[in-house]
Each structure stands twice: as structure tokens, then as C-alpha cells.
Amino acid sequence: MFYQGTQLPPPNNSDSSDDGVPVSPPRVRLRDGRYLAYREKGVPKDQAKHSIIIVHGFGSSKDMNFLAPQKPLDIEVLIRYLDTKKELIDELGIYILQYDRAGYGESDPNPKRSLKSEALDIEELADLLQIGSKFYLIGVSMGSYATWSCLNYIPNRLAGVAMIAPVINYLWPSFPESLIKEDYRRKLIKWSMWFANYFPRLLYWWVTQKWLPSNSVIEKNPAFFNKRDIDILETIPGFPMLTKNKLREQVVFDTLRGDWMVAFGNWEFDPLKLSNPFPDNRSSAHIWQGYEDKVVPSQIQRFVTQKLPWIQYHEVPDGGHLIVHYSGLCEAILKALLLGEENLSYRPRPEVFVS
């Protein structure tokens, strides 16, 4: 269950100068003295019609692939692909801000990480970079708990939100026991939380042992990924942040452990009782889910959107957990979020909704 982060791109020299000297990414200093690293894409922010902050998932970073091709392309096809994406970005006037959450990448750790601190980091980052009084938010996988937190703590700053395969916390009090009682994922999370809380040293020893399966074995495990996910994993770098070498770095292990405990611990609020932050219908909220997701169960995701009818639900029929990498999905997400356009390919079948 540690393996629900989105992937990082392979190492390259994009962060190096012409003479090969590494160039540090830009960072901003927060009120508490910590630094957050970030990267900007799209049109210049002072010319943007839409400013979007993307929140990466577990084990990922600001370099996660969003709007990237799902597989290697030859140079001519790649140029055409990038031209198409540039046309979309320019046409809609999109500015994209991606950042390393506390302790990830080049951002400083936050020993006081909490649901609220994640939301306040996003708000302060937006203010320091002066991207406007309102911005869109896209949360990916476990990064979506920061999105839920923003809906609770800073809803007035949000122009709209989208969550892609968002995390499910089985401790949310509004879940009926009958819905989650037999879910094996609930038990796995419960045991991992117990070890992370009471025996962190034992957990550290366990996840760094040589006899445990490598990432390559886990990435092909049908217990975590469906067939389409496994095909995707053949063409993307996998989970470099979760290798044993990385996990042996204490700061990496502590960051992942703290992130996990906040995501699956006791929350200060119940997301299923949140009020609609966009009552005038000028903005919108969306959840994008793979029907065959083996990390986050689609039937529970559908229950969430039934309880919160102001969230629009989109479902990839043959999708697993890695839908953010599926061809065309990011474009559909942007058009739904910014323009209100619905792609009928992702409309869930009526009969799959639970009563």
C-alpha cells in the first residue's frame, strides 16, 4: 500500500546548466522559515486566465508527469504532441504551478505536518508567487488529502478543484460499516498505521531489507494494478522515490511516514459533511476515478460523490490507479474543470452506482 504515488520522470539534465553544473530549482521561504521548491509551466502568470496548482501524491514530487505523453515517442510524433499541448495551454491561458510538498524533493520537511498545514502551505505559496486571489487545485492520489483540507480550511481561495484517484480514509465517520467492513485495504492500512505509530524503527528496518520484493516485482503485482496500469508501468520510470536506497535516507523515510500518518489518521473534519464551496455554480469540483482501481475502491468513491452531489464524478471504465498517465485524460480533466465540458467517455454507467 506504500505504492500509490504518481511517478517521477527519469533522471535527466533539465536541471543543469549548459556546462553541466546542477541548477537548484526556485524556492520560496514560508513564514515558519521552511522553504518550498516549485516549478512553473504554461503561460506567464501575469497573462494567465486560469492558474492551477497541482498537488503530487505519495513518493512523487513537483516533477510528476502531468500532460506528458504516456509512452516514449519518436521525435516527429513528440513534436506534434507537444505542439498540441501548447495549443491547449495557450488557448485556455493556463498557468501551472507544481511544488514539492513538505519534505519531498527540494522542499524542507515539516515536523508539524497536519491536514491544516498542507492547506496553509498551498495558500502561502500562492500568495508569495502572486498568482491571484483564487486558483484551481488538482490533487493526485494521496496528494488529494491536501485538496480536501483546502476545501475545508480555505474554500474562499478556490476557483475549482479536481481530484484524481483520491485517497480514501477508512476512519471518516460517515462511512457505513457495511461498506468498508470486508475491504482488505482497510486492514492493510490499519496495520501499517499501527507500525508507523508505535514501531517506526521496526518499520524502517523492514522496508529496507534486501529480501523484500523490489519495486519491479511490486509494479507488476495484480494485487495493486490492473492490466492497463501494468502496461503503463512498462513505459514510465516507476517509483524511484520508494526504492530501498531512497528509503534508507532518514529524511525520506520520515517524510513518507509522516505523510502516510496524516493521510490515514484521524481527521479534524469529516469530508462527507463539507458544504458546497461553489453554490453559485460558477466553479466546480470533480473526482476522476478508475473503475478497476485496486488501490482506491471505486465503489467507495461513488459513495463519496453520492454524499456530496456537488462533486461531479467521472470514471474510466477500464482504468486502474494510474489514470493520470492515460492518454487524453489530463486534457479531459482540464476541459471539465475550466470549461465545464463533459467527456461522455468518462460518464459512469448508471447501474454501477450504489443505492
Automatic annotation (TrEMBL):
Annotated InterPro entries: AB_hydrolase_1, AB_hydrolase_fold
Pfam family, one: Abhydrolase_6
Compositionally biased intervals (Low complexity): 13-22
Gene3D superfamilies listed in its UniProt record: alpha/beta hydrolase (3.40.50.1820)
Domain AB hydrolase-1: 52-325
Sequence segments annotated as region (Disordered): 1-27
SUPFAM superfamilies in the cross-refs: alpha/beta-Hydrolases (SSF53474)
UniProt-recorded name of the protein: AB hydrolase-1 domain-containing protein
